Amino acid sequence: MAMSRLTHEDISTLVHDDFVAYDAEYDNNVSIYTPKLTTLEDTLQTAQAHGNAMSCSEQIYVEAKWLLTQCSNWLKLEQELLRLENSLSTTDQNFADKQNPEDGSWGICYDTGWFFKVDAMMNAVNLMVQTDTAPEYPMTFLSPVGTPEKVVAYMRETVVSNISVTGVDNRQDLNAVSTVLSQMCFKSHLTTYFQTKVEGFDLTQEYIDAYRAYIDEWQDPETGYWGAWFQSGGTLHKSCDLSLTFHTISYLKGHVSLWPEIIDTTFAIKTDPYPYGWFHNDTFNNHNDYDLVKIFRYGWPHMSDSQKSEAVDNMNQMLDWCLNSSMTADGEFINDPTFYNSIGDVYYFGVSFLDEVGYFEKDKRFWTDQDFPDATDTCKKILASIERLGLTSDSADEAKQKLEPICGCDTKPA
């Protein structure tokens, strides 16, 4: 089969055209269901802004958003929208954060995408690691990737989408599962946790080696990037995906090949839209900027002086945008519902970017020796904002955990 590497415009056109080839009513259905989901999204985020985590509703919303944007299953989307609407009348949704005794999964309100449960599992594991708590039930739900042979087969199948045949873009599945697997296999404390605390899933060295070999096989030798592939018209098209590349580099602590190609590609895709570039709605985004700073950090020893200068210019731009455009003067991050799934996520990625770029701590400023005298006050303002809004989601809690050691638990601005 012939192969090609597409620009983001080409990928967008290919994905759209293949959805239309699968479903002639695709555009009409998107126009019908988009405002329905937006209305429910507004109600959900209003509830979250009033201190309700709304975990079950958020899970249904995330799945409905996936069905709308990356699938062509309108009957299932209709069912999910009804489920979402009905769920919004209940504010106490703590049941959705518990492990399912039947298969050991998390994300009980996810109904279709198995990979969403994988993602929810890792969020739960990251919390249990902090208290050295073992899962209550065996994680048998991981069976689809339960052996070295299965994980490689799953990745090889999922990396390629054939939308005109299946009506599904696999990119979100690919991103979620590869992100979790990379954490399990390459973050030593999580590897130890799975090997000593988790039943129903056997994370052996053979498993880790098989997955690592696939990661090396998957990397594009021309761009250095990892990304989703699309089969269309007899050709296999490769994409450069910022998120997939970031996760791989981050969890492998920069121990990857082809750094010159990675650096060149990273600068080349600056103005392209996420996930194929840095921007969302034609500007910076704290989620993407966090990813980029970490790529710059690991890529720093591999950069020329001119590339370092370019990276410094961009990080200054990102920091200015974060402090002056993405948040208010009193430390409240401005929600962008076209990108984020929850207000907690808005805070998590805003704080994570500021932390990664070294705004709060001088020893993290690999790229500059400048001081940020307002950092402590900004930290306290953000903490105060989280408290003022009553945010209680896991992502909001993670943002607080990053901030508190830096500026203390006193949430009143200096």
Task: Give short descriptive properties of this protein.
17 helices; 4-stranded mixed sheet; mainly alpha; disordered C terminus
Count of helices?
A: 17
For the secondary structure, the number of strands is 4
H and E string: EHHHHHHEHHHHEEHHHHHHH
Overall average residue pLDDT: 94
Q: Please state the overall shape, judged from the principal axes of the Cα atoms.
A: globular
Helix content: 55-70%
Measured by DSSP, the beta-strand proportion falls in: under 5%
Walkthrough of the structure:
A hairpin with a 2-residue loop joins strand 3 (229-232) and strand 4 (235-238). This protein has helices spanning 8-22, 26-49, 55-70, 74-87, 114-131, 148-158, 163-166, 171-186, 188-197, 205-218, 242-251, 259-268, 286-299, 305-324, 343-356, 375-389, 394-407; strands at 2-5, 160-161, 229-232, 235-238. With 414 residues, the chain is mainly alpha-helical. The protein contains 17 helices and four strands. Mean pLDDT is 94; it is low at 410-414. It has a four-stranded mixed beta sheet. The chain has a domain at 278-414.
Task: Summarize the model shown.
By secondary structure, the chain is mainly α.
Helices and strands in order:
Elements: E1 2-5, H1 8-22, H2 26-49, H3 55-70, H4 74-87, H5 114-131, H6 148-158, E2 160-161, H7 163-166, H8 171-186, H9 188-197, H10 205-218, E3 229-232, E4 235-238, H11 242-251, H12 259-268, H13 286-299, H14 305-324, H15 343-356, H16 375-389, H17 394-407
Helix pairs in contact: 2-3, 2-4, 3-4, 5-8, 6-10, 8-9, 8-10, 8-11, 11-13, 13-14, 13-15, 15-17, 16-17
